[in-house]
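Lab manual, section 2.4: Encoding a predicted structure.

Procedure: take the sequence of the chain (264 residues), apply the prediction step described in section 2.3, and record the output as structure tokens. A sample record is shown.
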Amino acid sequence: MKKICIWLFLSFVLPSVFAQGIMNFKDETHDFGNIDEGMLVSYEFEFTNTGDQPLEIIKVDASCGCTAPSWTTGSIYPNKKGIIKATFDSKDKPGPFTKSLTVKSNSKKQHLLLYIKGFVKAKASGIANTQGKNAENSAIKLNPPSFQLDRYSFDFGKVESGEKPKQRFTISNTGQENLVITSLESKCNCISFGLSNGVVAPGQSEVLELTINTDKIHLLDDVFTISSNDPFNPKREMKIKADIYENFGKQMFLERKSNAPFER
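Recorded output:
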């Protein structure tokens, strides 16, 4: 009789304990590409509840005040869809941007991150609009921005596949006009970036964070290019290196552990 009671408990109680909603997104990052400064752009992240219980979004927090989130409210039942909408205001934010949305819900993964990114094309300067090209060139010669980087190469050393190593660099402006970062790119497209601000005021500095993609096993030897409105050094290059390897010993251990029989 005792065994029957235990069996009934496991049959009816445990499924309800492990049953959960699962928020499955179509994509978790959206690139707006190039947009004009002052534009208000939006994107809807669509997801499906692939779990076996209703899920509900509790809240969505944006990483900055320039991004406004909105989302599907109420219960999203199994196999039904919902959205999380991100609206980015590019006013006074020229240069590259990467913003995040932190989603909290009652799904199996209670916290997850969504990202929007792109590049805001700066408005034409007032000097160029009112006095013409010659006046602009004269102003550049008198008070140009000056791009400085704390280092122009970095070796991550040996990095295990699957890791996401990051490194921070400092961009400084030693000139007398605002330094505007106009583009950031890597030749192999295996380096992602985050920039605290695309405009560096005179005498100030901003932080550039680089993350390398380690999905591919190889010797990474890449050039990361930073373009700006510095008239004397419009492009700066950083040499990035890493030895990305597969830890076969760790993989064998994990496979052996996953195939190990249950202990009595």
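Check your result against the sample. Residues 12-17, 126-133, 135-141 have pLDDT under 50 and may be disordered.
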